[in-house]
Prior knowledge:
65% helix
Amino acid sequence: MDPTADGLQREPLRTTLDPENFTPRLLSLLSNALVWRESNELRRRFGLGTNDWRVISALAFRPGSPATEVSEFIGVNKAVVSKSVNTLAERGLIVLLDGPRGSRPMYLTAAGVQMHDDMLPISMRGQDIVLAHLSAEEIVRVNDLLRRMLVDAKQLQVLENETAASSR
């Protein structure tokens, strides 16, 4: 299709993604809806957001992790983790022990443990929404597939980063 005289493409292109069947779009929309719901509820009830919850949750699972490990574990930028760490430390929910910057071990305080326990049901509600239409066997299969897809996505990212670096 040719653009009109003003250079604007006013008709849909012949080759486009099918938005109702493009799986990455559907996964992204679901993830966005779940994160928005969770973040809204966490902010309303606790004055903390999803990234703060992710740091708390990571430290509940991996006490003593430094910020760089938490960043890798939850898959978000170090600057995002740093902002959450500052917020959580100011609120007395975590402590950072001595160590070189970026490798200081972090732990939940008693208030942090309580906050974790209070926030957990909100996050688990998202899990309930995702799994509501699946059997136990399907849940195992979906989680296995998602873990494998994450490995593939990370490998592709590494390959693309290497390709970009070599073309500079």
